[in-house]
Amino acid sequence: MNSKSRSRSGPADRLNERPGYLLKRAAASAMADLSERLAAIDLRQVDASTLVLIDEKPGIIGSSIGKILDIRGANMVPLIRKLEDRDLIERTPIDGKSNGLHLTDKGKQVCREAEAILARFEQDLMARVPAEHREHLAPALLAIWRQS
Hints:
The protein is mostly helical. The protein contains eight helices and three strands; from the N terminus they run ααααβααββαα.
């Protein structure tokens, strides 16, 4: 929310009293910032999240990533293919049906760059939150998310 919309009085004042509205606006603002930062290394948020998950669990299968990130199976196929085409990940057959995913050397490098961007983003995001609320932000957001 920019300073102009904060300083206006009127109908927006009523919206600014609604936690759901504020959460939507805060999330949109934060995600736009993160998207811009990740674009510098030609990644989207979902690409970066996928690389981080594969780095954390080498051999993870695409459907497991889809469950964690809440992505439908049909949408995982082009996501995995795109990362594979960029030589960021490779598939390793597990059985006749599944492939484990691994980062390539290039993928490891890009993942490190993405993690540095994510860390800086998180620092900058938390700096925008008043100090007395920082320790409560993540637990509050988890509570909202886990109840849905």
